[in-house]
Amino acid sequence: MSALVWLRNDLRSSWHSPLDYAIEHHQQVRALYCLTPQQWQQYHLAPCKVNLIIDRLRELKTELAERNVELFVIDSGDYQHTPQAIIDFCQQHNIQSVYFNAEYEWDERVRDKQFKKLCDEQSFNVAKFHDTCIVRPELLQSKQATPYKMFTPYFRTWLDELYRQFPQPQALSVASIVSPAAEQLELASYYQQTHVAAYSASGDDIYQQLSCFIAERAPDYGLTRDFPALDSTSHISHLLAIGAISAKQCVFMLQQEYAEKLNEPTHGVHIWLKELAWRDFYRYVMFHFTHVNKNLPFQKHYRYFKWNTDQAHFKAWQNGMTGYPIVDAAMRALKATGWMHNRLRMVVASFYCKHLMLPWRWAEDYFMSQLIDGDFASNNGGWQWSASVGTDAAPYFRIFNPTAQSQKFDLNGEFIKRWVPELSSLSAKHIHQPSKYVDVYKLAYPLPIVDHASSVANTKLQFKQFIELSQQ
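Structure (tokenized):
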């Protein structure tokens, strides 16, 4: 009897437990991916990410064929209709066993529960595997047998579990990961491609991207990761977001290269490993505290906090016209490339939440609509952290000074000049605060839309008063 591997955010042909199990135990294996354009629109999925998924499916068709697995793609509309669509597919192809990887967000869990119910009714064999996280969220809890709410104690336990249980699969050769030129896969285009042509979905490029980072840039990651003008980060976040790379593979390759360095807190490879743990942590939060899946802050009392709703400020922030060059450069780069440097994500988020005091949910949705690496758990967790309403959130009184951040991490204004060309004639001294030194109107650049000192003071006051009222 043949088997089906239901693909989700795990679009790869190696480091894939459901696929490996199916191939080992069944003579005929098919793979299925369900396009859900209505769900994508509901989640504000970026056009560039949708196109990356489509491109990756074209490449994956060839990669899976090399393992004698045929890939099928169907349009199931949304999650509500996906379970029945898969049942229908199985019946049409005489399939009795279905394998897939767990997902931890609420809507995905509801979908999977419905699918399991339908499979039981049809007497189908269904098995769930756990490749999504490096360490499964069910395995970690505090000494009080409760879920962690803070990252630091979570990370300590996560590391213990990683070193105790992390599997050590046989090292893979490049040939087992890369693929030749992809065949054309006939897929409908539900989104118009607007940008981001430079991101490759081929197995060859994916593997080279990861291996080059680990070999060349990972050791210095802790020293260089905060400087946006440098090419010092991994640039694999979009591949992790669609599962073209396994996070477990990342850990395995780190262990292969730097086993003796992984426990050194200041070493670049340990710092990058911690970034992978943050990815797990935000899924852990989604799994254990389900209200954060539903547009609610982790700290529930903050649902009553009154944010500013100034649409002009929101549009200025979106369009990179705030009068703060580092913020504007970052937002323009996001719109043009579909990606933003992690340091800049923190800077623009702090400015948005603590200078403009705009609703963090607006920004969460906007980022998802732009990011090629949009990841619901990480995006939600990051915005709640910046707004001081989430788990392990930044204290409300810790607010980035965007000018100081600019001077520290883009000292000569290289990144700013790349994305805010109207300021390219300014010196390194003047470019971080142009309105202080030149007539910005002549440069067609705006004055700052808010004053740093007064907006920060107002934010601190608003939070302080809200907290005092909440404790009464």
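DSSP finds 20 helices and five strands in the chain. The first helix runs from residue 17 to 25.
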